[in-house]
Amino acid sequence: MTKVIISGGGTGGHIYPAIAIANALKEINPDIEVLFVGAEGKMEMEKVPKAGYPIIGLPIAGINRSNVLANLSFPRKLIASLSEARAIIKDFKPDVAVGVGGYASGPLLLAASMMGIPYLIQEQNSYAGVTNKFLAKKARKICVAYPKMDAFFAAEKIKMTGNPVRKDILEVKSKRDEALKHFGLDADKKTVLVIGGSQGARTINEAIDAGLTNLVGAGYQVVWQTGKLYIERAKTTASVFKGQVYVSDFIYEMDLAYAVADVVVSRAGALSVSELCLAAKPAILVPLPTAAEDHQTMNAMSLVNNDAAILVKDITARETLVKATIDLLQDVEKQAILSKNIHQLAKPEAAKEIAGEVLKLIKQ
Ligand SMILES: CC(=O)N[C@H]1[C@@H](OP(=O)(O)OP(=O)(O)OC[C@H]2O[C@@H](n3ccc(=O)[nH]c3=O)[C@H](O)[C@@H]2O)O[C@H](CO)[C@@H](O)[C@@H]1O
């Protein structure tokens, strides 16, 4: 029986591509056994079991760049994680491993390499972080979603697949009625979906909070995902708009959220961008300015340069975001252009292609 370990996580942008790869593997062969390895206390420990897969957590943490003292325990955690990763591999006996980025992929893939297990890396962004650059040296294959990744990785290992996206997001057109019912919304009104990435986005939350009366007053309804930190405030603001604003810290049914949306306001995390392409949604992107090497702006610009999305900078979002949203909601022609152009950038076969590459490594 074929056995695959998938490692990594930290945020939704790493976890959901990992789940999409696992699902694609299972679709090729339901007998393939998949084990996830994540980091203790991180988001994957909750989200992966919800998607139906077993996960083991390593005691690993990241390097804290703002507080040097917080890193004193890092070497101990790394050594403990490495030894645990070796034990997991010895016990599970995978034929191949996959790394999707995030803390756990470091020790797991390092152990895999020491134990002669071939591995593949999936890089979601247009910029490669330190860990993936290091792990790339021993990787057999690196699946990417952006051009010019040979700036970080050996060209002969790179395969351009796009980011793997959960299958239920591939088919959102037919789900509008189900989605309206799910979110308790009105079929006769246009809807804006506000998503701040897997953790929520402070600037977007503050802009929506201040402009909610204008949005609802203009006749629109809102699905607003806030992240954990803003949920209580958002609930208070939304409480006067019963039946017109749906608020949640995290949305599990993202397919329904995209299905109900006429316009989307979002951060520009790599997976959000890939999903918007597949769902063909007119979008206003507000890149997180502190993302490494400003990669969310690069992600967003890859769409904006193709007239496939609108960019609102984080620094001006509090003043301009709600107005830009209402303008787009009113401009049906612009919505159609954005929707057509963003859909052309979609890569619906990514998960399947990556799963194929994973299985090829076993045969080699
Ligand atoms: C702060 C941070 O580190 N951000 C990074 C993180 O973003 P982040 O984790 O926010 O990732 P993305 O925008 O790439 O993806 C978010 C994922 O979570 C899902 N989702 C989100 C909200 C929700 O309520 N429900 C839900 O299921 C989305 O559908 C998507 O699959 O990983 C991305 C991919 O490596 C990077 O580009 C981002 O810069």
Describe the protein:
The protein is built from 14 helices and 13 strands. It has helices at residues 12-28, 44-50, 74-92, 105-114, 130-136, 176-183, 202-217, 231-238, 254-260, 270-279, 295-304, 314-330, 332-343, 350-363, and strands at 3-7, 33-39, 55-58, 96-99, 119-123, 141-144, 158-160, 191-195, 221-225, 245-248, 263-266, 283-285, 310-311. The strands form two sheets. A seven-stranded parallel sheet has the order 3-2-1-4-5-6-7, sandwiched between helices. The chain is globular and about 60 Å long. 49% of the residues are buried. The model has no long low-confidence stretch (mean pLDDT 95). Bound molecules: uridine-diphosphate-N-acetylglucosamine (UD1). Uridine-diphosphate-N-acetylglucosamine is lined by residues 11-14, 16, 124-125, 195, 197-199, 225, 250-251, 254, 267, 269-272, 275, 288, 291, 296. UDP-N-acetyl-alpha-D-glucosamine binds at residues 11-13, 125, 166, 198, 251, 270-275, 296.
What's a quick, concise take on this entry?
With 364 residues, the chain is an alpha/beta fold.
DSSP strand content: 15-25%
Fraction of residues in helix? 40-55%
The number of distinct β-strands equals 13
Distance between the termini: 16 Å
Give the CATH topology of the largest domain: Rossmann fold
Q: Main beta sheet, described?
A: 7 strands, parallel
Instruction: Please tell me what the overall shape is.
Output: globular
Structural class: alpha/beta
Strand arrangement within the widest β-sheet reads 3-2-1-4-5-6-7
Counting H and I runs of at least 4 residues, what is the number of helices? Answer: 14
What is the CATH level 1 assignment of the largest domain? Alpha Beta
CATH superfamily of the largest domain: Glycogen Phosphorylase B
Mean pLDDT: 95
List low-confidence stretches: none
Total number of domains: 2
- The radius of gyration computed from the alpha-carbon positions, rounded to a whole number of angstroms, is 21 Å
Name the bound molecules. uridine-diphosphate-N-acetylglucosamine
CATH architecture of the largest domain: 3-Layer(aba) Sandwich
User: Which H/E pattern describes the elements?
Assistant: EHEHEHEHEHEEHEHEHEHEHEHEHHH
Membrane topology: Peripheral membrane protein
Main location: membrane
InterPro entries: GlcNAc_MurG, Glyco_trans_28_C, GlycoTrans_28_N
Subcellular location: Cell membrane
